[in-house]
Design a protein that fits this description.
Length: 173
C-alpha cells in the first residue's frame, strides 16, 4: 500500500488512556509470552508517557491497527530495565529506547509498520531528540536497516531469554 493510501486509511496520533486494553491485547497477539510486555507494565507506560506511544487507528473501525512505544532517556545503550521500569523515563531525554512495534496480523504486509516508524522518527526529530535505539531479533535486522537503522551488533539485553541486535537511528536535522 502506498504512503498516501496509508495516511488516508489511518490516523496517526498519541495513544489515549482508554485504549490501554487494546494495546495490551495487541501485545499478546504480536509477541510470544516471554517477550510481551505485561498488562501492568503496558498500562504504567501508557499512564506515564502516552506521548511516546504512536498509534495507527483504522478510520473505518476506530480500532488500533498498530503502535510503537518507547521511553525517553539520556542513556545511550539499551538495557532490559527499560522494559520493566517506567521510572527510567526522562521526558527531556536525548534518546528514545523503543520497546515494541506491534501491528495486528490483518494489517501486516501493507507497509503500516514502516509508516508508523517513519511518523515516530519524524516526531522525535521535531522534539530535538538525538537518536532512537531498539533491539530486535536477527530476523528483523534487515527490515530495520531498510528503515535507516544501523546495526550495532549483539545487545547486552537478553530480554525474554533471547539474543538481540541493538540498532540505532540518528535523528540529524
Amino acid at each position: 500500500m502506498k504512503q498516501k493510501d496509508l495516511r488516508e486509511r489511518f490516523v496517526f496520533r498519541n495513544i489515549l488512556q482508554e485504549e490501554a486494553d487494546q494495546a495490551v491485547s495487541m501485545e499478546k497477539i504480536c509477541f510470544p509470552p516471554n517477550e510481551a510486555c505485561s498488562e501492568t507494565m503496558m498500562k504504567e507506560r501508557i499512564a506515564k508517557a502516552p506521548e511516546l506511544f504512536l498509534v495507527a487507528v483504522d478510520k473505518e473501525s476506530g480500532k488500533l491497527a498498530g503502535f510503537l512505544n518507547g521511553l525517553a532517556t539520556d542513556e545511550a545503550s539499551f538495557r532490559d530495565e527499560f522494559f520493566t521500569d517506567a521510572q527510567l523515563y526522562n521526558p527531556d531525554g536525548a534518546n528514545v529506547m523503543l520497546l515494541g512495534l506491534d501491528v495486528l496480523p490483518e494489517y501486516r504486509g501493507q507497509g503500516l509498520a514502516r509508516e508508523i516508524v517513519s511518523h515516530y522518527l519524524a516526531r522525535e526529530r521535531d522534539k530535538n531528540r538525538a537518536q532512537v535505539i531498539l533491539t530486535c531479533l536477527d530476523s528483523k535486522v534487515g527490515m530495520y536497516e531498510k528503515m535507516g537503522f544501523l546495526d550495532l551488533g549483539i545487545s547486552e539485553s537478553s530480554w525474554g531469554g533471547e539474543q538481540w541486535h541493538e540498532m540505532v537511528y540518528r535523528l540529524e536535522k
